[in-house]
């Protein structure tokens, strides 16, 4: 009797990988390790945790800290990428090597409290397949970052064909189904947030208070954030290509009307004013619009270019999960 109950319990228990992308996080890692161990120790739900650290080419002592941590814990694993590929690629490197019932993505800086994973898992066990944590507050973040992020998501929501989750980072619990869906994606520039929305499945939000960074500085400079924003738009939608078309149509119509107006004026008043100002305005306007359209097309062409090169999205330098080769077959 006892034995059957145990196997039943084991069968009912779920395996859950906690995926941590890290880049130069030596100051946060010791505290993160403690809290992850605590999470595992205090868990009363039928969950078997494992931890996967994907080091995104750290230059500090992060890698040796992770190596030492994993060496004494059978449930902790790591992958070190050969250089800094960016958080998106680091996450996907992890996603592609996970084979558990569920996956949680969490930042290394403890801004996403690991203790909430249990509550997210409750929703997961109720049948939700993508439990995404939505920030109720963003402590310690500058107003500019909050405002620009808000405006960006509002814009994206308008032009994208799938629903985008606002105020949502990468902190989320994905069911195996979602993970397998993400593993099938072949694009070379993968914007995680866009793809989490795109795959669909049963989603539910989970409100939380985002803490301040435990230590160190944010790894996202202004330029990196702009890059991410542009990537989000171009990987989500081709609407900007249409903007170029509509701008062209609008300007052509306006020019035609203006031409008629000039002709009428010439016929009625007889004398034409030297049109320096208007010529300049039209030239500059047209030049601007042409450059904008070219830029938009360039963005998409660059993506085609990157895709056709067919390079692997990241390279693994060292790991303890058995991929042990310096490169992966590209996807
Ligand atoms: N990160 C990464 N590669 C990068 C940038 C960031 O793996 O190129 C990791 C970083 O170590 C952290 C997470 O991504 O675990 C989020 O980064 P950060 O805290 O700097 O972003 P923020 O919270 O300011 O948005
Ligand atoms: Mg952070």
Automatic annotation (TrEMBL):
Chief localization class?
Answer: membrane
Annotated localization:
Cell membrane
Q: Which part of the chain is the Glycosyltransferase 2-like domain?
A: 17-179
Entries under InterPro entries matching the protein:
Glyco_trans_2-like, Glycosyltransferase_2, Nucleotide-diphossugar_trans
By sequence similarity, the record places it as follows: Belongs to the glycosyltransferase 2 family. GtrB subfamily.
* Membrane topology per record: Multi-pass membrane protein
GO terms for molecular function, please?
undecaprenyl-phosphate 4-deoxy-4-formamido-L-arabinose transferase activity
Q: Write the record's keywords in alphabetical order, separated by commas.
A: Cell membrane, Glycosyltransferase, Membrane, Transferase, Transmembrane, Transmembrane helix
Signal sequence: where?
Answer: none
The protein's name is Glycosyltransferase
Q: Which PANTHER family match?
A: GLYCOSYLTRANSFERASE CSBB-RELATED, UNDECAPRENYL-PHOSPHATE 4-DEOXY-4-FORMAMIDO-L-ARABINOSE TRANSFERASE-RELATED
- List all membrane-crossing ranges: 243-264, 276-302
Enzymatic class: transferase
């Amino acid at each position: 009797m006892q034995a059957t109950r145990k196997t039943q319990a084991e069968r009912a228990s779920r395996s859950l990988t906690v995926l941590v992308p890290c880049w130069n996080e030596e100051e946060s890692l010791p505290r993160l390790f403690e809290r992850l161990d605590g999470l595992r120790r205090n868990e009363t739900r039928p969950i078997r945790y494992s931890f996967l650290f994907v080091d995104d080419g750290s230059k500090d002592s992060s890698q040796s800290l992770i190596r030492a941590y994993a060496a004494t814990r059978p449930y902790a694993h790591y992958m070190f990428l050969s250089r800094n590929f960016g958080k998106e690629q680091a996450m996907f490197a992890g996603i592609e090597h996970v084979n558990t019932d569920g996956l949680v993505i969490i930042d290394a800086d403890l801004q996403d409290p690991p203790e909430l994973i249990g509550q997210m898992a409750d929703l997961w066990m109720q049948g939700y397949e993508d439990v995404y944590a939505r920030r109720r507050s963003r402590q310690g973040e500058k107003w500019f970052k909050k405002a620009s992020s808000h405006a960006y998501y509002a814009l994206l929501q308008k032009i994208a064909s799938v629903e985008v989750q606002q105020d949502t980072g990468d902190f989320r619990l994905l069911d195996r189904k979602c993970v397998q869906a993400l593993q099938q994606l072949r694009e070379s520039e993968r914007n995680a947030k866009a793809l989490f929305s795109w795959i669909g499945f049963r989603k539910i939000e989970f409100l939380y208070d985002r803490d301040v960074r435990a230590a160190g500085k944010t790894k996202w400079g202004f330029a990196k954030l702009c890059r991410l924003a542009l990537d989000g738009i171009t990987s989500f939608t081709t609407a900007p290509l249409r903007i170029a078309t509509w701008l062209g149509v609008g300007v052509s119509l306006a020019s035609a009307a203006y031409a008629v107006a000039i002709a009428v004026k010439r016929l009625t008043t007889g004398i034409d004013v030297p049109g320096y100002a208007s010529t300049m305005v039209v030239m500059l306007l047209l030049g601007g619009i042409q450059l904008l359209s070219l830029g938009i097309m360039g963005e998409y062409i660059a993506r085609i270019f990157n895709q056709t090169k067919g390079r692997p999205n990241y390279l693994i330098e060292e790991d303890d999960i058995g991929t042990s080769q310096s490169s992966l077959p590209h996807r």
